[in-house]
Amino acid sequence: MSNKFKVFIDGKAGTTGLKIYERLGKRDDIEILLIDEDKRKDTDERARLINSADIVFLCLPDAAAVEAVKLCTNPDTRIIDASTAHRTDPAWDYGFPELSEKHRENIRKSKRVANPGCYASGFISLVYPLIQAGVLPEDYPVTCHAVSGYSGGGNKMIDAIEGADKTFEMNSPRQYALAQHHKHLPEMQAVCGMKYPPMFNPIVDDYFSGMVVSVPLVSRCLNKKYTPAEIHEIMTAHYAGQHFVKVMELGGEETLPDGFLAANTLADTNNMQIFVFGNDDQILLCSRFDNLGKGASGAALQNMNIMLGIDETIGLE
Ligand SMILES: NC(=O)C1=CN([C@@H]2O[C@H](COP(=O)(O)OP(=O)(O)OC[C@H]3O[C@@H](n4cnc5c(N)ncnc54)[C@H](OP(=O)(O)O)[C@@H]3O)[C@@H](O)[C@H]2O)C=CC1
Ligand SMILES: CC(=O)N[C@@H](CCC(=O)OP(=O)(O)O)C(=O)O
């Protein structure tokens, strides 16, 4: 009898699933349950593997993720869903352990973990600590700008940009979700405890992966006037001792000597860097990470480690 943890990745052929598979393949404490290529959408075979696994990753479109959860009848099988389907479902635990010890503890005990969305991870990393600390009023009109690599759009977008039919426009940054309907808005609002959803301006650009999510704040409109140094101190205290989330030096001059905050430098890592810039009235918060790392597959693997009660950094360095 193998004493390895059994893992099934539903959607292994997709962008998120493949990254999880590649990282798990290097581990000797995990047995990956594989589905035959011609059966990867076969409901009975997926159900068999789901119910044979200790941990299931759902790396599927939302509707298929909802269906997969229904296929799970084994009370011991634990699910980590990378899709948007369960992120505001109160029966699920939100998989962002650095938000609070309560979040980490809930993940550790959970049978159902909703992995955060990529943009949402960046947004929540900046806004959640400030609402918790009473800095940001719950009804503050929060604005958020973000830039992502095109892998954030999954296989379809990767094929469009890397394929022969790439359009002229795809060579440039492209704003989207202009009508304020982006699928991450509900989780941004719910997890942070905001009265209103933020104004959100995502941009996808012509590089593979990595992102920066930015939130500007006007100090005079906060619960009281704060300096960037005070905000930096609050963020630093919030993430003290975290392995993957680091608050960088105030103003970022050492990390960004040329003054440019590139979005692609943390690609292929599970790290997240938080920056505080600005002056006594205009404060800019930025979160930099990999949309496929801390924004998807890396976070999912970190959550798995926590659920299994092992060192959360295993396989993520
Ligand atoms: N890419 C990213 O940066 C992030 C993605 N996510 C989320 O993760 C999930 C997966 O996204 P991503 O990897 O980008 O998407 P992809 O489109 O790259 O992959 C999805 C995979 O699921 C397969 N699939 C679709 N329907 C079924 C089904 N009924 N049964 C079994 N397999 C099925 C697809 O196969 P086929 O192509 O043959 O249909 C494909 O291989 C999504 O919910 C996405 O929103 C979350 C965070 C970041
Ligand atoms: C560039 C791009 O298209 N990005 C995706 C978000 C990727 C992601 O985080 O998807 P989940 O919500 O499933 O987690 C988008 O904006 O829809």
Automatic annotation (TrEMBL):
Location in the cell: Cytoplasm
The Semialdehyde dehydrogenase NAD-binding domain, residue ranges: 6-107
CC per GO annotation: cytoplasm
Keyword terms: Amino-acid biosynthesis, Arginine biosynthesis, Cytoplasm, NADP, Oxidoreductase
Any GO BP: L-arginine biosynthetic process
EC number from the UniProt entry: 1.2.1.38
Protein name: N-acetyl-gamma-glutamyl-phosphate reductase
